[in-house]
Amino acid sequence: MSAIGVHFGYTCACVAIFKDGRADVVANDAGDRVTPAVVGFRDTEQIVGLAAKQGRIRNAANTVVKVKQMLGRRFDDPETQAHQTETKCQVISKEGKPYYEIPARARPLPETWPDS
């Protein structure tokens, strides 16, 4: 029997595979077995993991951190409000739900659709 396990924490994420009676945490492209749960946005690209975490100082308004703290919460939830003081990325309300507003993505991006 084989299985996969995903850990999505407040600050990091990792994936493990159980196969042939043993578990192995999968390394990312940098060789690390734990990846920071951080996403940074630029005009045309998304940066994830350690590179996004390291770029947070230069790109704070476009860097999303600690997403798990807001999953399933309303915008007016005290936890959501507290999170807003911890991030430089603007959190806005859409129909009562919290959304990150990403300045780097303010202009419309071209949309691509899979072939039918």
UniProtKB/TrEMBL annotation:
UniProt signal peptide: none
Taxonomic superkingdom: Eukaryota
Family: Belongs to the heat shock protein 70 family.
Protein name: Uncharacterized protein
InterPro entries: ATPase_NBD, Hsp_70_fam
Single GO MF descriptor: ATP binding
Keywords (A to Z) from UniProt: ATP-binding, Nucleotide-binding
